[in-house]
What we know:
CATH architecture: Alpha-Beta Barrel
Radius of gyration: 18 Å
Oligomer: single chain
Number of domains: 1
Amino acid sequence: MSQVSVASGENPEVHISEVGPRDGLQSTQRIMATADKLRWIGALHATGLREIEVGSFVPPRLLPQMADAAEVVAGARLLPGLTVMALVPNQKGAGAALAAGVHKLTLPVSASEAHSMANVRRTPLQMVDEVRAVVALRDAHDPAVGVEVGISTAFGCTLQGPVDEDDVIRLAVRCAEAGAQEVGLSDTTGYANPAQVRRLFRRLRAELGERAGAAHMHNTRGLGLANCLAAFEEGVTTFDASQAGLGGCPYAPGASGNVVTEDLVFMFEAMGVRTGVDLSLLMQAREALARGLPEEPLYGMTPEAGLPKGFAAEVARA
């Protein structure tokens, strides 16, 4: 697979999918009020972000932070040009999400059997059957709704340990055969390193071509941006990130720290890779997040340091 070249004059672009309102908020102790969520999502949309994972459709007793998912979807749908995405673990969640009016469904399918049982109480192969059933439900309800899969623990698991790379690729292919339009790889536990990321995404893209999906990286061990860059150089153009680095999987011990959206956007824009996101507005959006969760730690090197003197995305692309 040929690598992406910023110097090639091809005006490279990437797509940033903001997952903070779901992946970030599901891990916080405090519950953000619905009105605060919608203010934050509105502020994120104002930056130029055009895909936001706004919630997950799971039992409120398991994740009370997501109990208002349908209301959040309804509010987010009012924002022009926004793809409103939600995580669904099964057919029941997918049915509720479709009824709420989401534009895209994303399903977590873990390559680690231990994590899969802890997270969704199904084996990886049972989750492939769930993907097939969700696709059929989507087709009956609204074929225009997208369905994507993220292969969780693709790079290692805190419960199981190493995850065989052949198993990861076989599972990704099965999910695509089950009807998923995109299949990406998720570093759920922050185990990945750039060499591993290159290897797995190269194999994924060789197997799935344009159906190879997003890179979802965590910064648990400080390698989040390096891993995103490695994925980009293998041709990946969609990246999940969470404002202020909120998030982590509640069913994977020690899996903290999503890639910080602000830092990821800065890296790409400084390289001359378009993101479509206004960095100044993105850093201002942190104020809406802080108001909604006033005691929550917010992370990010770029917001802390500020933009370099004279920096502008247009200058970086010149």
